[in-house]
Amino acid sequence: MKKIFLCSICNINSGTCNEDCKFCSQSVKYRADIERYHHKPIEDIVNEARYIERKGALGFCLVTAQKGLDDKTLEFVCNVAHTLNKAVPRLRLIACNGTASREQLDALKKAGIAAYNHNLETSEAFYPHVCTTHSWQERYSTCENVTASGLNLLTGGIFGLGESHDDRLNMLRAIASLNPISVPVNFYHHNNALPLAPNPLTVDEALSLLRLTREMVPNADRIMVAGGRELLFKERTHEIFNHGVNAIVIGNYLTTSGCDADKDLQMLKALHLGIATSPKDASP
Ligand code: SF4
Predict the structure, then answer these.
(1) Pocket of ligand 1, candidates 26, 63, 129, 161: which has the most ligand atoms within 8 Å of its Cβ, to mutate?
(2) How many angstroms does the Cα of residue 95 sit away from the middle of ligand 1?
(3) Would 8 disulfide with which of 47, 57, 127, 132, CB 3.0-4.6 Å?
(4) Measuring from atom 3 of ligand 1, which residue has the nearest CA?
(5) What is the CA radius of gyration of the chain?
(6) Per-residue pLDDT reduced to its tens digit, 30-76
(7) For 157, phi and psi rounded to 5 degrees?
(8) For position 270, which CATH number holds?
(9) What confidence category does residue 1 fall into, taking pLDDT thresholds of 50, 70 and 90?
């Protein structure tokens, strides 16, 4: 039976970022109507972790909305990691905290973080069209730091920002060059406060991009569909599993509601797909 890795995202700090990424409602610049807070209370994080672990999630990603780690955020993420590793030890903790140095990543690893997620987002050439406050190269360097620190690297991107097909190919080549363990694939979810046009991709185009991702990053253990899944694929969501996908994000996303976790579990059951109980368990 093919098994699917389930991952959940926890926004432990939300909507406070000073960067200008045009696809991101967490930037303070665009004043999107989202919930904004500095530190989510630890009891809430533990409750979310326990809930999603009961649903079968193995990955739990601690996301902060800022350009990168500073001392205060690093301390907060490390404290959350210590608490979660005691309270919900089965979960594999992933940190997603932006630009990070080798030393900061070493500290996260010591605190019990298993993997770091830092997406390249798009190609190097297209990146200045969607972000002017930091460079693509800085993102690539953080990914290299992740591997050097011994953490597992998760890196992927977003389709549907207005990029060309060549940009997509170049992004996937760059991702493959970093040898990630997992590739999170997002589909741009438009918000009227953001300056980009809505995502132009059709479902068929999106499915071929998933197939392309699997083919161009053959060594990754997992191709994971993350943001934008419900909005784009709707009743055709089940088809993603025929296009190389073996991981999904369940529960809510950072600033948008996902589909009810139970609905996803029912879908997997109806498709005769199992749930991975260890990271290596997710079928290729
Ligand atoms: S750096 Fe991250 S959180 Fe900040 S605006 Fe860009 S994508 Fe959003």
Answers:
(1) 26
(2) 14
(3) 57
(4) 65
(5) 17
(6) 988 777 878 899 999 999 999 999 999 999 999 999 899 999 999 99
(7) -170, -165
(8) 3.20.20.70
(9) confident
Centroid of ligand 1 to alpha carbon of 112 (angstroms): 24
Q: What are phi and psi of 28, to 5 degrees?
A: -70, -20
Q: List 92's β-bridge partners, or say none.
A: 59
Asked whether 187 and 168 are in contact (CB, 8 A), the reply is no
Neighbour count for residue 31 (Cβ, 10 Å): 10
Instruction: Classify 44 in phi/psi space as left (phi over 0), alpha (psi -120 to 50) or beta.
Output: alpha
Residue 277 CA to ligand 1 centre (angstroms): 31
Residues with CB under 6 A from ligand 1: 17, 19, 21, 24, 26-27, 65, 67, 98
Number of domains the chain is built from: 1
Q: What pLDDT shows up at residue 256?
A: 57
Range of the domain at 132: 3-281
Taking phi over 0 as left and psi of -120 to 50 as alpha, with beta for the rest, 31 belongs to left
**CA angle (63, 54, 281) in 5-degree steps:** 80
Enter the tokens of residue 31: 């004043």
Q: How far is the CA of 103 from the centre of ligand 1 (A)?
A: 22
110-144 residue pLDDT tens: 999 999 999 999 999 999 999 999 999 999 999 99
Share of the chain above pLDDT 70, in %: 96
Q: Is this structure's pTM higher than 0.90?
A: yes
In this predicted structure, the answer to whether residue 83 has a pLDDT above a threshold of 90 is yes
Assess contact for 217 and 223: CB atoms under 8 A.
yes
Structure tokens at 83: 């608490």
**98, two tokens:** 């932006």
Atom of ligand 1 nearest to the CA of 64: 3
- How much distance in Å is there from the Cα of 121 to the middle of ligand 1? 10
